[in-house]
Structures are given as C-alpha cells and as structure tokens.
Description:
By secondary structure, this protein is mainly alpha-helical. The protein has helices at residues 2-23, 28-40, 52-69, 73-78, 80-105, 111-121, 126-133, 140-170, 175-206, 211-231, 236-248, 251-254, 257-292, 298-330, 332-337, 342-349, 356-363, 378-406, 415-436, 442-460, 482-503, 509-527, and strands spanning 368-369, 373-374. The radius of gyration is 26 Å and the shape is globular.
Amino acid sequence: MENITVIIMLLFGVAFLSLLSKKYNFPVPIVLVLCGVTISIIPGLPVVALSPEVVFVIFLPPLLYHAAWHTSWSDFKQTIRPITLAAVGLVLFTTVSVAVAAHYLIADISWPLAFLLGAIVSPPDAVSATAITKGLGLHPRLIAILEGESLLNDASGLVAYKYALAAITAGNFVLWQAGLNFFIMSTLGIAIGLVVGYIMNFIHKKFVYDDAIEATLTLLTPFASYLIAEHFECSGVLAVVTTGLFLSARSGTIFTHESRMVTNTIWRVLANILNGLIFILIGLQLRQIVSGIGDYSGISLFIWGASVSVVVVVVRFLWIVPATLLPRFLSKKIRLKEEFDYRNMIIFGWSGMRGVVSMAAALALPLTINGDEAFPLRNLIIYLVFCVILSTLVIQGLTLPWVIKKLKIERYSILAQEYQIRNAIVSETISHIEDNFSLLNDDLLHNIKSKYEVKFNRLQKTELPANFFGKGKIMGGEIFNDFTKLQIDLLNVERTKLETMHKSGSVNEEIFRKIEKELDLEETRLWMEMYEE
C-alpha cells in the first residue's frame, strides 16, 4: 500500500511538471527522463519493481496502439520504402554495431549480452519522435518517415531482443533460422493484427451504440491483438501496430462524434500516465541498479554509457547516407518523384531519440535464468540503456530546434492546405444545398444557406502566411478570426447564464447536462478552426 501511495504522489508530480512543459513549450519526454533521474536521488523512496513478465503487456500494447492510431495510413504507404529501410536495416545495423562496441569495450559482456544490449537500444521511440518534432515546422514527408520508422522498428528490435534472450538462456543461436523465423513471425503478426482489426471494425459497426462501451472496447483492443499474437509466438508488436493502422483508417465510419471525443480524451490520459509511470519505475529502481554495478568505477561507467550512446548516434548517420542516396541512384522514378534535400538527412539522423520502448524492454529482462541463476549483468545493461535514453533525449531533443535553425530550413506550414480543404468542403456543401434543397421553405433555405455562405466569406478573407522560421506562433494567417472569437464569447455568455440558473436550482440536472454538452461540442468545433503549429 505504501508503494502505491508513493507512485500516485510521484505521478501527481510528473503530471504537474508535464503541465509546465506544455506551457513553456518544453518536450514532455525530456521532462520524464529527467524526472526519472531526480526520483533516483531522492532519499527514502522505496524500490518498486514490476514483474518482468508483465512489463511488456502493460506498457507496449497501449502505447504502440496510440502511436499507430495517430499515424496516417496514406502517408505510411507513400513512405514505405524509407520506413522499411530504417525500421529493419537500420535497426539490425545498430544492433550489430552496438554489440561489437560493447563486447570489445566492456570485458565482462559476452556476445549474446552485447547483442541483447544492441537490440534494446536499436529502435527509436515513436512517442519521443512525435513529441519532440511537433511544432518544428518539418516537412510532412519527413515526419511521416520518422513516425513510421518508430512504429515498425520496435518489431524488428524486439524480435532481435527475443533471439538474444534465447541465446543467453538456451545457449544456442542459428542465424538462418533466426532470419526465417523473423519473416514468419512478422507475417503472421501482421495477419493476426488484420484479423483482430476486421473483427473489431465489424463489432463497432454492427453492435456498439454507446460511447462508453466503444471507448472500453478501444482500450481492450491492443491488449487482445498483442496477447493473441504472442500466444501463437508471432510479433505482438506488429499485430498491435497493424490493428491500430487498420482501425484508425476507418475511424470516421465506425465511431460517432461523441465516442471519438471520449475515446481520444481517454487515450491521451492513458498515454500520459503510462509514459510517466515507466520513468517513475526506472527512477525508483535506478539507485538499486547503480548499487548493483558498484564493482565498476564511476569513470568506467561514464565512459561505457557515453560510448554506447555515441555509437547509437553515429551509426544512424552512417546508415542514412547510402540508404537515401543509393535508391535515388538506381531508380530514375525515385529521382523524378521525390524531392531531395541533404538537410533532411541530417535532421533524420539527429532525430533518433530513444524512449519508453527501450526502457520497457530493459525492465522486462528476467531476474533469473534456468530457475535460480541470476541474469548476468542485468543491472549494467539497464544502466547502459538508461544512459542512451538520457543522452539521446536530452542532447538530441534539446538541440534539434537549434540544428534546424542552423541548417536554415524554412518552416513548413500546412495552413494553405487547410484553407484549400475547408474551401472545397464549404463550396461543395453550398452547391449541394442549391441543387437539392430548392423546394424547402424559403426561410429555412435562406438560414441554412447563409450559415455556409458566412463560412465561405470568412475563408476568402483569410490571409495565408508565407513560410517562415523561428517566429513561434503564426500571427496574422489564422483561420480562427474575429467572427470565431465572437461566437466563443457568446457561448461563454450562454454558459454563464446556464450555470447561474443551475446553481439557483431552476434547471433540471438532465436538461443542464444536455445543454452543457451542446455548448461544449460547439466550442470544441470553433476552437478546432484555429490551427497552431
């Protein structure tokens, strides 16, 4: 009970710091990893550890599903080549490179342990990549590659992780069998993910009419997909990602507007809690982990942690140059279709932040092997993984805006695209009204047409901003204009009157909640008209 109280209080602290990071535009993943360091040095806190067997089940399915849900399937398909090269080739290259460096740098680390360390730190983190690159004005194609890579590379990294564990526990490893099993596990994992996605799509469409039940099913779906795939010894990670991409692409037809609002809110809360919780857990264990590697000198530990981190960063650059240039050299179609800017290679190379997935994999290392023998160098491996996460998140994450500025990359704005989309929707709606509603009552026709004509006229007065860099919020090109502000002010007047009547007891609770919800939905719609980069 005491441990639960400590964790809840620490979660309050992490939530407060995350709130400040949002207010002052500081990346939340960096706040979390620094919180982990801070927690580890607070005296008197208990050591809290989850069972390694349940770490993956608790953390990976919901976090990966949440990331997949917010990934565009269209963008994913268009960038599948660079995503695959990074998610498979780069992960395996990083695994091998880190293994070689760790084996020859640290005498106690055997080849299987070295490959295990490499597999854990090889995949960049989807949550970290999205959070840190958000608002930097990067090109959508680059963002799509970073997010897609961070989704798929977890699968290849964790498959390598499992084989390295098998080599340690069973003492055998056959390369060609591992390659064949990787292909089979990945294919079956994708197939199971599609089957689960299809079944849940059918259930949502045919049987579910309540937003709370829909939200509940959405929360359970990633766990079902992961556990089914793992039961059949397939890639649970790929199954979850596949299910998330499948259902996300169909969310517009299977969810009502109410269930979408409820579900999105719940998932944001859950993702924040899980991300905070895993770094709290590592913080509560870090003191014990450090004490468990007390036989090594502080200088050696620092050199090892720094060296592994440098290898992780450098091999990403070594890979990205041939992986980008070679396909362009071999294919004229690629050269004609895809724009090339060497600066994007630098940004991609500097965006390989590690995060919650690597941390979960480290915490999931078994405590013992063969029943009673302690897992070799478990504390040292966890320490090295944390060093990589800390250095990549803090150093790369904090300096990424500076790197973009030094490269003089123009800030990419999607406001012009938003304007075109809104304009097309409003124009099509007005045409539909004119073509199909001509027989309506004149007053009704005038009122409904006036609503969309007002929207159309506001769009025509929108000042679209030129691309720029480093000026924070866009000042003068927002679609959110004075008319929208006036509507929100009037909604606040309605809400104040409603709340006054409610406090006086002159409004029935059911009526109050219904009108309050209507006002909330309308205000949500109005606020969505403002797009902040």
